[in-house]
UniProtKB/TrEMBL annotation:
Its main location: nucleus. One of its GO terms (molecular function) is DNA binding. GO terms for cellular component: nucleus. Residues 1-25 are annotated as: Disordered. This is EDF1 factor. Residues 81-135 form the HTH cro/C1-type domain. It comes from Bucco capensis (collared puffbird). The keyword DNA-binding applies. The keyword Amino-acid biosynthesis does not apply. Keywords: DNA-binding, Transcription, Transcription regulation. The gene is Edf1. It comes from the Eukaryota.
Amino acid sequence: MAESDWDTVTVLRKKGPSAAQAKSKQAILAAQRRGEDVETSKKWAAGQNKQHFITKNTAKLDRETEELHHDRVSLEVGKVIQQGRQSKGMTQKDLATKINEKPQVIADYESGRAIPNNQVMGKIERAIGLKLRGKDIGKPLETGPKGK
């Protein structure tokens, strides 16, 4: 009965270093000396609240100089959205709910304050049935079969 010998101990797996120990400089150097693969990466703004980091380029765009500015939705498009929405008997909130956006987004598009987004414009076009992009703004949307 060699299997029941109490003097021998079999270790199946060794517990690795804890997270705090693995991050220490000493643990990294020891692993490098043993020839293990060590990968280190610095997390950007780790432990800080720097989600809204302003770079030089965005600061320039925010100042909106003459050569660098955000394009806005034209007032013509805003009026078409408003008229199409009212002809369908919808409020801004109803239209926003229908296209899964916030009511403020619709208000911004109608007032000409919004920066155009093709996905949002497409949703609004389908909801009110009027074209908002291209040459024939305000014309009825052609609903033909989709080609594959």
